[in-house]
Design a protein that fits this description.
- There is one protein chain.
- The protein is mostly helical.
- The strands form two sheets. A five-stranded mixed β-sheet has the order 4-3-5-7-6, sandwiched between helices. A two-stranded antiparallel sheet has the order 1-2.
- Helix 7 packs antiparallel against helix 17 and helix 15 runs antiparallel to helix 18.
Amino acid sequence: MGLFSRYNSRRHEYPVESPGPESRAGCQDAWKFIGRNAIIRIPGSLEERFGSVMERSKQSSEWVLAVLILSAPRLARLMSPAVHIEDPNYIYGAFLITLGQQPFLQFAQPNPPLLESFLALFYMIFGVSYRIPEMLTALAYIGTGIVIYRMGSRWFSPIAGLWAAVFYSFHFLLFRYHLFEREVFATLAVALAVDRIMMPSEDRRQEWVAGAFLGLGFVCKQTALVPFAVLTGMLVLFHRRWRSALWLIIGFLGVFAITSVGYTYLYGIHYWRQTLWFHFIKGTVAPWQEKSILTVWALGYLIPFLAGSIYVFLKPLRSFEWILAGLFAADIVFFWFVTGAFWPHYLLSTIFPATLLAGGVIHSWINAFKNGPYQKYRAVVSFVLTLVTATVMGVLAPGSLLGTNVAEAYGFDGIPRKEIDRCSAFIKEHTLPGELIISDPFIALVSERAKVVKFKDNWGLIMKMYRLIDEGRYWEGIKEMSTQNFGDVRFASQKEWEPMILEALTTDKVGAIQPNYELPLPPDRMRQFGFKQGYRSLYYEIWIRDNR
């Protein structure tokens, strides 16, 4: 066999004629041989190139379709006529930064202010508008959905990855919390970290980049410490990847050190008191039994798929499914038994592993009949568990699959955007730019006015904490307040900032009042301070100065 024969037998299915001694002896025969074989060789090369181009085109089309599908719910919520926000203090805090006020020193800040600073930059570039955090939230949701699709496609199948991403992107909690929650951005960082860790590669940069993502997640929301601990532990105990765990820790601590040193330099001990010490005295919401019921309502249609994912226990401990199960279980343990506070938006981070587990369940069903009898039996058991759980939830708690008790109208409820525009326009027209107002933070933001008390839910507690520290009774305060009801603790702390309200009213620093938001101010009381009712609707009532 000659050189040409070996080359062509490697490249083509059919054999190529080898030149004989006579053709090798003469140049003319050699050229005839090359020409004859070139006709065979060129089409094969074109076919390979064409197939490669078609494969890349198919993959690109799948990604474009996935992005369009995952963007659709966000566009629908952006175009919705109503807006809902549960905790506007953070986007209002970003507005205060644009006014030159400092977090921790001039307003309460229970988390590192990276997100607020980032948002303040957008306010300064594009103007103050709640649409900015709303669009950033939508982009973060889309980004997390894309990462979920990527991981699901790699570890299960493209169709399972798409199902997982759809379960995430169309979940009712994402429609309800469409306007900025810290967990939204922390979850994106955690998802990117998990994707990096589980990516098959010998490049050690994967692990420290993943650690850096987890560090950014922690700066966004400190509960990201939970997935960091889970991933580190599983890398060491189950995967025996000691070096990977070490690089993960280095990446996390690097971001943590940079931000901690920077914020300590800017704000001193106040940074640590409000981002760390404060969380031990803010009270508790409910016992774990009530939290478990709220969790079922908040996760909704994901619960049946989680029941169907029992097959995870049959997987090797090194499998991707165990990483997901560990992240989910750690979140549940932390929210039920460790932290006192608990709200549905906390579970935005829990939805991430839950949807990927749901995608794994879909994958097991699709491939059930392509494998042996054991896989078929496992898939049937998984399907029955999913169906039974969904039926029980639908019968015993109608609406629980769609989160009726935690997301009215599937999360599309809220205050009409036009009403917000009318109210804010009225306040801008009847107050001066430098005047303070007494209102909820959202109205203060859209009106571009500063409030008398910033972050009233926490400001009183922080003032009380500082007083306890000065008196040397902080540890006594932890024992006393950590077990009390969340609402009761805050109501009792109002006396810390009530003098600020009264002082502002008596010195004519206030230009508008939203009654009964911060203090119970009856009409006669507001008239004594020189106010009259100026705006009233189904959603808002605003009092302004008599001389306006």
